[in-house]
Design brief:
CATH superfamily of chain A: MazG-like
Largest sheet of chain A: none
Number of domains of chain A: 1
Order of helices and strands of chain A: HHHHHH
Distance between the termini of chain A: 24 Å
Number of helices of chain A: 6
CATH architecture of chain A: Orthogonal Bundle
Radius of gyration of chain A: 18 Å
Helix content of chain A: 55-70%
Strand content of chain A: under 5%
Oligomer: homotetramer
Largest interface: A-B, 82 and 82 residues
Structural class of chain A: mainly alpha
CATH topology of chain A: Helix Hairpins
Number of strands of chain A: 0
């Protein structure tokens, strides 16, 4: 993969919005709504599938899911931009937090309590 | 920003999951659910705010929103990984599609029809 | 409104599912996914509208929103049925809880803190 | 179950909101956000469970799920009220539409196409 692809797509998303004068609709409130709508389009592909079927999608279905993946990423980029937040920096901070919250030696395995762990990223 | 940060965080997310043996829970079906739950935690911060208030968050609120941003990105990375999809490639394809679907000269402006455009990324 | 309409529609939803032998797909897990997908279809109608526009929908838009309202109610009924829960009883309990959590004399008004109240039902 | 319970809880929800002067926050836009946030709290209970586990919840978990069920119903009632829509009438219309869209004799069974049916209410 080429360098700085993430910076490149952030720039492309920004320009796409500006060219269309759509920034006026991009309050964080609205963007959070647009993002969850795309997240739901992702969920919709899996709602009647078993977990195993969800891991074995047809090429057609995979192509549709790929589009929702992109839509979610694009809105996330716009949302971060509007809030003047940096996604990479935010993820770095969160991974440190999560590592402290879920020490590997404590949470590894399959005890009943694993159902109580909300963050499984 | 350093090079390949996106590759770096993808690798860190992958290792985080492996160290905890959490991959067993990461069917695409489950990950799509975890992702929309985080998207909703983002929405929750804005549900009673006006659009303007959503653009002027306190430092405390902004820090919380930054965590949801990270959580969404992390699950998106895990979901892409499980589906063997590449987020950057997916976004590249989608931006081309969107540019054709919404030519700037046609959709720019504030006609009533803008409410009918679903993709405003 | 006629008596027992809620019981009537619960019965009709149950029969609709049974006639089609769709109960096999109706695990609570799946139903929760189907429900949030419909909730997102509702959100989608409002994502680019201002709050005021959302209170003044065209007849066409209102008809679409009415369909999402119905879809959400129907999946909620199926979900309650699968979990052997009674929606009316659940609401009764929750209203009592909420009244204690948000005493009217304490939460009425427009202090800054109102943004911190999650349950505004 | 007593008569007109649904009318009764609609009235109680309306009064609850009025006593607290919260109607000002109840634009349909905001209510759609509040509703999907509750729908996500429901999803969260199931995200790491298998379908079978989701059908066999502990009493503690079931009590939590019951609360989300109530929260969703309450916001749905407020949303319908704000839009001057009647939930029962909306469901009646939708069930007729769905019966025509999914004739029992055509959709019953377990053919591969069932994954393509979005409405399985």
């Amino acid at each position: 993969m080429a360098d700085n692809d993430f910076d490149r797509i952030k720039k492309q998303v920004r320009e796409f919005v500006q060219e269309r004068d759509w920034d006026q609709f991009h309050s964080p409130k609205n963007l959070s709504m647009a993002l969850i709508v795309e997240a739901a389009e992702m969920v919709e592909h899996f709602q009647w599938l078993t977990e195993e079927q969800s891991s074995n999608l047809s090429p057609e279905k995979l192509a549709e899911v790929e589009q929702e993946l992109a839509d979610i990423q694009v809105y996330l980029i716009s949302l971060a931009e509007k809030l003047k937040l940096d996604i990479i920096a935010a993820v770095d901070k969160k991974l440190v937090l999560n590592a402290a919250k879920y020490p590997a030696d404590k949470v590894r395995g399959s005890s009943k309590k694993y159902n109580e762990y909300k963050d499984r990223s």
